[in-house]
Amino acid sequence: MTSSDLQGLYQELILDHSRSPHGYGLRGEVAAQSHQVNPTCGDEITLQVHRAADGTLEAVTWEGHGCAISQASASLFAELVEGMPLSEVERRIAVFREAMRSRGKIEPDPELLGDAAALGGVSKYVARVKCAMLAWVAAEDALRKLDS
User: What residue ranges define each of the domains in the chain, with the CATH number in brackets?
Assistant: First the structure.
């Protein structure tokens, strides 16, 4: 598979997630939530984290509006982390942040980030990194609120 074929697959994955997002729709009962805004472009998200009785992340739910990257990133995050221990979710957020800040020098690890690795190309475009990070920052903030 050529790199242009791979880019096409990644672009299609991002578009699919922005059109049919995973975890979209807030719940009435809220364990913890965070509202984040990207002032650069106006993207917004409200993200909730719901912990299961066993301490894992039962679900991530969210609503927001913005570009395909921010919406797909929220969907990919929700899909990736459901069922994970909270410490592992925090680790994945750190790995994603490192890749996004690398300006294309670090390829996201699909073993750790699953389909969210498709967002790796965004790191080359500084103006778009905040779009990709919006849901992940909201999740990090919401996770901190779980135990507050």
Answer: 3-146 (3.90.1010.10)
Residues 6+ apart with CB under 8 A from 140: 90, 93
The residue type at 117: A
Give me 54's structure tokens. Answer: 């066993």
How far is Cα 35 from Cα 45, in angstroms, rounded to an integer? 6
What are the structure tokens assigned to 13, written together? Answer: 């994955």
Burial class (CB in 10 A: 0-12, 13-18, 19+), 114: middle
Residues 98-107: pLDDT tens digits? 999 999 999 9
SS3 call for 63? strand
- pLDDT tens-digit series, residues 108-128: 999 999 999 999 999 999 889
33 backbone dihedrals φ, ψ, rounded to 5°: -145, 165
Q: What's the order of all strands across the beta sheet hosting 32-37?
A: 32-37, 44-51, 57-65
104: left (phi over 0), alpha (psi -120 to 50) or beta: left
Which residues share a beta bridge with 35?
Answer: 46
Give the residue from 140, 139, 129 showing the smallest Cα distance to 67.
129
Are the beta carbons of 10 and 121 closer than 8 angstroms? yes
